[in-house]
Design brief:
- The complex is a heterotrimer.
- The N and C termini of chain A lie far apart (44 Å).
- In chain A, 53% of the residues are buried.
- Chain A is mainly α.
- Chain A contains 13 helices and no strands.
- In chain A, helix 3 packs parallel to helix 7 and helix 7 packs antiparallel against helix 10.
- Chain B has one domain.
- The chains are: A mainly alpha, B mainly alpha, C alpha/beta.
- At the A-C interface, helix 8 and helix 9 of A face helix 10, helix 11 and strand 20 of C.
Chain lengths: 365, 304, 502
């Protein structure tokens, strides 16, 4: 019993570690191919992400939208539905919040709260469109959410290119005007971007852990994800779960966008959520974390650090910063296999009856 | 709007259809044997990039084509190993692989060409163009088929060949059977996993063609994430065709039209909105498709 | 000696499925392998057919040792198998299914469907088993599907055919057809291994009989030297006791179904004008060959499926086409027919599996937040009471054996203490001890005054527990019997669509 617990603990710690090391090895090979000393590059990368105050602050600030969008994705994925539209939801949430902040007579903390709520509401609505299409017309959530990312990105860019464009200065940059001082999250110093929003993001993620593990909603969505028929049989309406999780996911994505706008950028910038790839990094973080919000938090900080370190690496060594993304994708892939390896080991040790598939119920349409 | 302009629009439609058609065929080849291929996008992008790199070094369109197709197949093979052999969830492998290819291509683009954004010029050659001189009698028809590459025509031929393969050959029969009941196939000595892996690799080859045409069919160019969702559009096309290879021609032409409209309408509507057209069309199309299917079902139940 | 298996041993973890088994088969004979569920018959046959490999022991064919890595090897050595779950492709035609794996070709790669059809017709003629080559398998009744399966095995050109529980899914009439076929095959020179636990069939067709119990070979003997009583004693290992059913006063109806109708995609209704009732203190059995609308009836009663017309009244509340939750609130609990498809989530913990449909009760949840302490106590108490063997309540459901999962489900549903319970196939495929335990619990529930609707394709179970029996055939209630007037013959006749005289 105790042995079993110990072994499980070991497994749960060892498999991500192995995956990370393997992914770093892949990164090293890639760097060797481009003629860079990987040891030097990694040293550079990790010092300039976690071990210097300025970079650590940057990493933490970067991790906030990542962890929120990661938890947003986890909310839906663990219920067995697929939301790939966090990026589009962030765009809409961010744009609406920015519009409210710029054009409404709102000030100070309450103003910020109002704008964020507006942004979250807008993102929620956008997330519910594909949900409704899936519910009503059986339009695959995977395709619709992804397609909306592209469409929304183009359309939101229109606003900062034309009606909302900041014409001050040379007016070349496609971005909105800045939001006023009193609406911004508090920054601790002028030297870095560290601000209060990061702590709020962490609190929200911890809250989501509580929601996932201790509440009726968390239980119902988890069961729906594991076996929809079982959920239906027990009185859980899987369609209701889909709407609930997608709405929550949209709201979290919208919140993630607001954190970036009110804490870091102070304006809506052309393609600000598609070029940074927060949503996708978040998705990777939550996949590595196996839908667990607390682990998502940890991995978000780690992946954010890789990104920050990667950017620094590009500046100093000249290795393209995409090395960070390569490592991040490799971790996800390696972890996914490792999970299964364990699963197989467990299964092969036990009585395994191969039951023929009853084709009345099975089969692919 | 004069006639020749219309011909030009149709011509653009053909060009935009080809990559979608190839990828849609790849998607349905997997679906038919019960594999869900989410990494179409990554397979196309890898092919586009490798074709451009090969082009840059060899200035030979044929070698570029082969290299691109091989790259598509290679990515598909990795996906197949993860997804089919190691039974990793399709969405996880697919998403991670799409992102991986996206970042690897962006990385290598900077490492090889030293540029960010787009790669163009360097004396790279496009695919061989065919002009049907016997159509010269009609400027409209001539313009319609002007400067299409061999691969553009190949797409439709491949669709027909796949149709024949599925429904007339023994091997295609086995592939379909795996999609219906893999356990039964296994119990009768047909190695279903092997067939699934090959189907995935085959879909990689098809996506490879799609990716190469996308990069070298018109202007020879590579841009970061240049497939921009075409793999998923193709997935929509395949599902609208109910995984029928000939149906895929029709649905791909529809998406080709949407893609070409997004370019040709730019003179009339703000480009930020026209760029969104193909994506909104995809959402709309699979929704309408859902409506049609559900009313068909309802009719079927009322009939009795 | 055609086939010999010597000292075959196969273990799955701690479970010894086959312990040093010997089997021999002569040419042109029917060997019956009998034993209860879990005796290891299927495992032994899977080893012979190459679906499993044995840990130790050897297989000889015509005196030569062989090793099968896959069914392909077995077929190449002349061994075919008609499996319990048919290995067919429903959207393909009969001919396509029969020639599968050995398709006639033209021009090397093309599938010659015409030739396939004519070959199938020739095969039909040869063995006197007729079938339309171009009929779709999905349109065939179960008996015909089995015939396709047999033809498929014959097409592979095998001499030895293994039948794994062939009569489990058939109506009594189809069973007699099957037995005739077996005899014809034997006369055509084929050797047959028949796995079953139905002793009457064995006595009708078998030449020799091999009895297994708990992975051990008990005895092999000639048919002439034995009888049903001895066989059943050898199979079970002790005399079967029949349970006394206590007489109790039956109250008002707790379930009332009026004219329930559910349409299908075709021209026929899946459920057609069903009117049944269950009273307090009564177990009502629904007998029938599976696939005659029982599954749909259960789903309509519990609110999972919406029906076209009719009424369902549970505990005096009209719950027609209401949600599952409303159904449960009005006093309905359900042991679903498939424990993995409906009854549990294999990857969820025992805690999570146990609190389904309980978790929103007051002591477990407040303001949407679950009370872990009470949930733990509830689960552990419940699992202990129902004798579920587990090591930790955080174990995943898939780590339990089938019988224990079934006990968990029964425990969960009985703990609802609802006035009405649907028990669908409550003991399918589990060991005798667990069956006995679950039957006891169901009877206790009945004796405490609750109503139970027992849906089972196992006639013996229906007869062991029911106060009243309905028989379903093609979506209709084809007959109703009280306990006193029901006999196996009468019920069996109705099950296959026959009519009682008078």
């Amino acid at each position: 019993m105790d042995e079993l617990k110990k072994k499980r603990l070991f497994d749960s710690a060892a498999s991500p570690l192995i995956a990370i090391l393997a992914a770093l090895a892949v990164g090293a090979i890639v760097m060797l191919l481009t003629g860079t000393n990987p040891l030097y590059a990694y040293k550079e990368m990790f010092t300039k992400s976690f071990f210097k105050p300025y970079y650590l602050a940057e990493t933490l600030v970067r991790s906030a939208p990542i962890m929120l969008s990661g938890v947003a994705a986890a909310t839906v994925w663990r219920a067995g539905y697929i939301n790939l539209g966090m990026q589009g939801q962030m765009c809409v949430g961010g744009l609406v919040a920015a519009v409210m902040a710029i054009y409404l007579p709102v000030h100070s903390l309450w103003g910020t709260a109002l704008c964020i709520l507006g942004g979250m509401a807008a993102a929620t609505l956008i997330a519910l469109i594909p949900t409704y299409l899936d519910y009503k017309f059986n339009a695959s959530l995977i395709i619709t959410t992804l397609m909306l990312n592209y469409a929304i990105n183009h359309i939101t860019n229109y606003f900062v290119a034309y009606p909302m464009r900041d014409t001050a200065g040379d007016g070349m940059a496609q971005q909105s005007v800045q939001i006023e001082q009193s609406l911004r999250f508090f920054r601790f110093s002028n030297k870095n971007a560290m601000n209060t929003s990061v702590f709020i993001a962490i609190l929200v993620v911890i809250l989501m852990y509580f929601v996932f593990t201790k509440t009726k909603f968390g239980y119902e969505s988890k069961i729906t994800g594991l076996n929809k028929n079982f959920a239906n049989y027990g009185g859980i309406k899987s369609m209701k779960t889909m709407f609930q999780t997608m709405a929550l996911s949209g709201a979290l994505s919208g919140f993630a966008a607001c954190i970036e706008i009110f804490g870091v950028r102070y304006r809506y910038v052309n393609s600000m959520f598609s070029s940074t790839g927060y949503a996708w990094t978040g998705l990777m973080a939550m996949l590595i974390a196996g839908y667990n919000p607390l682990l998502t938090l940890v991995y978000s900080i780690f992946l954010a650090g890789l990104n920050i370190g990667g950017t620094a690496l590009q500046r100093t060594v000249g290795v393209p910063m995409q090395i960070a993304d390569i490592i991040q994708c490799c971790i996800t892939l390696f972890i996914s296999v490792n999970f299964l390896y364990e699963f197989n080991k467990k299964r092969s040790g036990k009585c395994r009856k191969k039951v023929g598939k009853r084709w009345e119920t099975g089969g692919v349409a | 709007m004069n006639n020749l302009y219309l011909a030009a629009v149709i011509n653009t439609t053909f060009r935009y259809t080809t990559p979608v058609l190839f990828a849609a065929l790849g998607s349905l080849a997997c679906t038919k044997c019960a594999v869900f291929n989410v990494a179409l996008e990554g397979q196309m992008l890898a092919a586009s990039f490798v074709a451009i790199v090969a082009n840059y070094y060899t200035h030979n369109a044929f070698i570029s084509l082969l290299a691109g197709v091989a790259a598509g197949a290679f990515v598909a093979w990795i996906v197949a190993v993860f997804q089919i052999k190691w039974k990793v969830r399709d969405m996880v492998v697919g998403t991670a692989m799409n992102l991986l290819v996206q970042s690897v291509t962006a990385f290598l683009m900077q490492a090889i060409f030293g540029s960010r954004g787009t790669v163009q010029g360097f004396g790279m050659v496009p695919l061989t163009k065919i002009n049907l001189s016997f159509l010269k009698f009609s400027p409209f028809l001539y313009r319609m088929f002007e400067d299409l590459s061999t691969i553009d025509y190949l797409g439709y031929i491949v669709a027909v060949l796949i149709f024949i393969y599925f429904y007339k050959t023994v091997s295609g029969f086995h592939l379909l059977s795996v999609g219906i009941n893999a356990d039964a196939a296994d119990s009768l000595g047909i190695k279903s996993q092997r067939i699934q892996i090959w189907a995935m690799v085959f879909s990689g080859i098809l996506c490879g063609f799609g990716g190469v045409v996308h990069a070298m069919g018109n202007v020879t160019v590579f841009a970061e994430n240049m497939t921009s969702g075409r793999g998923f559009i193709a997935m929509g096309a395949a599902s609208m065709a109910q995984s029928h290879p000939l149906g895929a021609i029709a649905s791909s032409l529809f998406f080709g039209t949407a893609l070409s409209l997004s370019k040709t309408l730019q003179g009339y509507i703000n480009s930020y909105f026209t760029e969104a057209i193909p994506y909104l069309c995809t959402v709309l199309a699979i929704t309408i498709y859902g409506v049609v299917i559900s009313t068909q079902r309802r009719k079927a139940t009322i009939k009795m | 000696m055609l086939v010999e298996m010597k000292q075959i041993t196969k273990t799955y973890g701690p479970l010894v499925a086959n312990n040093k088994l010997d089997l021999s088969l002569n040419k042109g004979e029917i060997l019956a392998v009998v034993g209860e569920n879990g005796a290891g018959k299927s495992t032994l046959m899977k080893i012979l057919y190459g679906l499993e490999t044995c840990d130790s022991g050897e297989i000889l064919i015509d005196g030569k040792p062989v090793r099968f890595r896959s069914p392909h090897d077995a077929i190449a050595n002349g061994i075919g198998m008609v499996q319990q779950h048919f290995m067919l492709f429903p959207t393909f035609t009969a001919a396509e299914n029969i020639v599968y794996g050995h398709e006639p070709k033209k021009e090397l790669i093309f599938f010659d469907r015409k030739d396939a059809a004519s070959q199938v017709q020739a095969l039909c003629k040869q063995y006197g088993m007729y079938i339309q080559p171009d009929i779709k398998v999905a349109d065939c009744p179960v008996g015909l599907q089995q015939r396709i399966e047999i033809l498929k095995v014959l097409y592979q050109g095998v001499n030895i055919i293994i039948f794994d529980e062939p009569s489990a899914v058939l109506t009594p009439q189809e069973v007699s057809e099957l037995l005739k076929t077996l005899k014809e095959l034997k006369n055509a020179g084929k050797s047959i291994i028949l796995i079953t636990h139905k002793l009457s069939e064995v006595m009708e067709v078998a030449d020799r009989i091999m009895v297994m119990r708990l992975g051990q070979l008990i005895k092999t003997m000639k048919k002439e030297d034995t009888n049903i009583e001895e066989l059943s004693f050898l199979m079970v290992g002790h005399k079967l006791e029949t349970r006394e059913i206590q007489k109790i006063e039956q109250g008002d109806a707790v379930l009332q179904v009026e004219h329930l109708t559910l349409s299908g995609t075709g021209t026929k209704n899946i459920l057609d004008d069903i009117s049944i009732h269950v009273r307090h203190g009564e177990i009502v059995g629904i007998a029938g060959v599976s696939g005659n609308g029982q599954s749909e009836l259960i789903q309509c009663l519990t609110g999972i499926k919406k029906f076209d017309s009719g009424k369902v009244i549970i505990n005096n509340t009209d719950v027609s086409n209401r949600s599952v939750q409303e159904n449960r609130d009005s006093g309905c609990a359900c042991v679903p027919e498939d424990r993995y498809f409906w009854g549990t989530a294999s990857d969820a913990t025992l805690l999570e599996n146990s609190i389904m449909a309980h978790y929103h009760k007051k002591h477990m949840m407040r303001y949407g937040v679950l009370n872990r302490k009470n949930i733990k106590k509830f689960t552990n108490d419940m699992l202990a009471e129902f004798d579920v063997r587990y090591t930790s309540d955080k174990q995943a459901g898939k780590e339990l054996s089938g019988g224990n999962v079934q006990k968990l489900i029964v425990a969960r549903e009985i703990s609802q203490h609802s006035p009405f319970l649907v028990a669908a196939e409550p003991t399918r495929g589990i060991d005798i001890g667990a069956i006995d335990f679950i039957h006891g619990k169901l009877l206790d529930k009945r004796n405490s005054g609750d109503g139970i609707l027992l849906v089972s394709s196992e006639l013996s179970e229906i007869f062991a527990l029911s106060d009243r029996i309905y028989v379903m055939y093609e979506g209709r209630i084809a007959g109703e019997f009280s306990r006193a007037e029901a006999t196996r013959d009468k019920v069996g006749l109705i099950m296959m669509g026959g009519k009682l005289n008078g």
